[in-house]
Amino acid sequence: MSNQPSQGPDYQRPENQSGGPPWSGYQPPGQYGQGAGHGQSQYGQAQYNQPQYNQPQYFGQASYYGQQVEPKTLSIASMVCGIASVIMGWLLLPQFAAIITGHLALRREPSGKGMSITGLVLGYLCLLGYGALWLLFIIGVAVAGTAGSNTGTF
User: What is the CA 65 to chain-centroid distance, rounded?
Assistant: First the structure.
């Protein structure tokens, strides 16, 4: 008697079986180079690099998720003008350019929403800040002009 448990009445150890396959219905895979046909795998499907009939052929790199890249020209222009308004805001021209292109970009380019919002925020904040400085400068010049003309005699 052996030390291993019984596997059932029909079980035979593989070394005790006659030269057939170890399981009924089992067929060992073919040797290298002896497959189904050229371009066909063992399971009846075409191999990966072989073309199939009635299927379109695509060449080149596929676009990201199958969509074309949308232009973001207005969004980039809005952000660049917003950054320029921080540096050259005393001109007041970059703020207006950032605000106008930012609003146009929000309407026309939904994919560049972040850049257009950045341009809008920088444009409005710099317009408010530098506009206040211009207003104080103009008031200061006006007050200095009226105060200098008074001679102080009654």
Answer: 10
* CA 140 to centroid of chain Cα atoms: 50
Contact 85, 98 (CB under 8 A): yes
Angle of CA points 78, 79, 84, to nearest 5°? 95
| Secondary structure (3-state) at 96 | helix
Cα(43)–Cα(27) distance, integer angstroms: 13
pLDDT in tens, 44-92: 555 555 555 665 655 555 555 666 677 899 999 999 999 999 999 888 8
Dump pLDDT digits (tens) for 125-150. Answer: 999 999 999 999 999 999 988 876 65
Q: Residue 112 is encoded by which pair of tokens?
A: 């560049």
Distance separating alpha carbons of residues 94 and 86, to the nearest angstrom: 9
Q: Positive or negative CA dihedral for 116, 117, 118, 120? A: positive
